[in-house]
Amino acid sequence: MAVPFYPALFFLAALWGGSFLFMRVAAPVLGPVWLIEVRVLIAGLVLLPLLAHRRQLSALRGHWRLLMWVGCLNAALPFTLLAYSSVYLTAGMTSILNATVPIFAALIGFLVYAEPLDRARGLGVVLGFLGVVVLVGTPHDGGVLPLLPIATGLAAAVSYVFAANFAKRRLMQVPALVFVTGSQLGAAVALLPLLPFFPPPQLPNMTVVSAVFALAVLSTSLAFLIYFQLIREVGPARTLSVTYLIPVFAILWGALLLGETLTLSMLLGGVLILLGVALANHRGFAGLWGRPPSR
Q1: Residue 289 belongs to a domain
Q2: How many domains does the chain have?
Q3: CA proximity to 282, closest of 227, 252, 240, 246
């Protein structure tokens, strides 16, 4: 059944923008590793019955090794890095760092995969990194931002790029639902051995529990279903415009629900980064089925 494009696009952006809000609430309490373990496990288990209904469990079993690898690169590692960033940065700031994925895609594509980098994409890379410099180098609320959470946010973006290239080369034949379900469950398996070494700092209250379930069910399972439905109906180029809306919603949710403020450096840096994204993405970084602009 077809879905209206613009309502679905804005709803998807709201869900993925909300993921940074939910991580900001839950990560300081559960810690990044436990939070993401619960997130990917619930997300995968929620999608598993739908996979069985579509009779695609055999595809999941047949590609489980590759799905484990892509689950590490596309979920376990970047989700955990972003969760760590969200302990120290605002939801809006973390979402802006996450928005650098197409910029790194253009740069890594040129340096590692010998993809062409024309003037527009090159300018996009320069503007994107200039935006990061503005974000990091300008004092915020009387202090300078901690560098390690900034670095982990950018490292998550790099991980998404390598995941997309890996999946594009090895998993293009895998149905989208199999890819999402398998990668989430694969990420849960990969993170499992780390749990004893990173115990939760606190016991969660109902607010944190609600944030975790919202992160897993709404911002992961439901969001991916909407995303791939849009890919099927309107194609990756139009659907990837959600990339520009995610930071807007993350900043909005942070301001409305957490009292976060939008600083001048966030505004200037964010505009530069999104302009860089537009230029770096002008030929369309489709990656895997129009690679999800991760959250």
Answers
A1: no
A2: 1
A3: 240
